[in-house]
Amino acid sequence: MPGGALESRLVRLGLDASRASGFAAAAKRLIDAGISPSTRASAFWVPGRIEVAGKHTDYAGGRSLLCAANRGFAVVSAEREDAVCRIFATFELTCEQAEAEVRLDASASEPLPEGWALYPAVTARRLARNFGLRGGISLALSCDLAEASGMSSSSAVITLMFLALAARNKLGSSPELVRALPTAEQLAHYLGCIENGQDCGPSLPGDRGVGTFGGSEDHTAILLCGAGELRQYSFCPTRLEARVRMPPGLVFVLAVSGAVARKGAERLADYNNAALLAGWAATSAVEGGPDAERRADWAVRPTLAAVTRAAAARLQMPPAAPAVKQAVMDSIIPADNGTHPSGCEAGALARRFDQFHTESEVVVPGLARALGGGEAAGAVDTAAIGTLVDLSQKLTASHLRNTLPETEWLPETARSLGALGASAFGAGFGGSVWALVEVGKAQSFAAEWEAAYVSAFPDRASLARFFVMATPAPGACSVV
């Protein structure tokens, strides 16, 4: 597609025309690798995501408020005749280039690569085993997301590999795929299962994932969010609950802390701890609650959202009601005395449920309403935005306990500089922070925020990035 036509296409999709340079760079990388310009190819835009609210809620069946970032991956994928996937990666912010090669017909005993190449390798192997894919690709990607920034670059790589391999192997029209994953929401859930290695129903058995016990929030946002809007989803199963247009006159300013949120062995237990606590708290609520004798009726792994709904039905109250929260808490407390088989400290299960219930039942739907969306769409409520986001950030530090000094300092300082709300997001132990500000003040706010941060954390200056996101981007889509 000629440059002008590509730029027009990107604008129609809701992207800036300047994105065309990323696709041109990816195409050139393939040509430089010896791939003929006449080779049949596809191109995709795959964004990072911003978790506006909904910290560690998805795998527990809760809610999230999400949008697609306007930074991400420009992808060009050329067809091959063998079962090999060659990946050429360009990371624009660091000017680094990397290559990886994985085989669709790899045996289960073959070791997986380390680092960023793990994600395409895990995806290719799972798709080959679940759907019998054998058509390989040579894929080049150009990425302007900061590495390990909390914007889900790893989930974006899984998504882009799926899109490219599905296009090469005509998987979208496969009856097998349609039967197993009839909706886009179910596809997003499957992409989450690729990452965590779990089964996705009886017909799509799991394989080795990447070692994290996450849900499908990231993949849902990357795949399904729309240009210029936020979306509220609930999970287990994935369901769209509300669309929220980005309020006119407001923009997100993003701060990449430079505290790299790596998921290596040294942090894996910390990442997975929140998920494990959520599961243990849900099981404790079932076993310690009034319906304990019926626990065999529950799924193998009850979720915190499910036990909340059960308590709400029993009390005939909304799930967000304080009495419902207290009823579940009362069921958890007997097992929350420091003698739980998991070895978790006293009070850990109650804290985890407290954070989950507040985030999922109060913060997420309340923030959607405050931004002028939800079932009763109306004016923006700036006071409510600040109150709800401050509460979410406070519980992140006190209950999830996955913040760092940088990701506590950034939201607090953003609020002191006039942001309507500011919150850390991502799995934790690093990552990014968003601040919601008036559009006319965004550039000066970003400059002042960055200067203050670099002064407070000079060792983060080389990796930190601050930028204004004019509007949420479209989710993953075909460009050519």
Automatic annotation (TrEMBL):
GO terms for molecular function: ATP binding; galactokinase activity. This is Ghmp kinase. Residues 123-189 form the GHMP kinase N-terminal domain. Belongs to the GHMP kinase family. GalK subfamily. Residues 45-76 form the Galactokinase N-terminal domain. It holds the Pfam family GHMP_kinases_N. Keywords: ATP-binding, Kinase, Nucleotide-binding, Transferase. GO terms for cellular component: cytosol. SUPFAM superfamilies: GHMP Kinase, C-terminal domain (SSF55060), Ribosomal protein S5 domain 2-like (SSF54211). One of its GO terms (biological process) is galactose metabolic process. It comes from Chrysochromulina tobinii. Residues 382-453 form the GHMP kinase C-terminal domain.
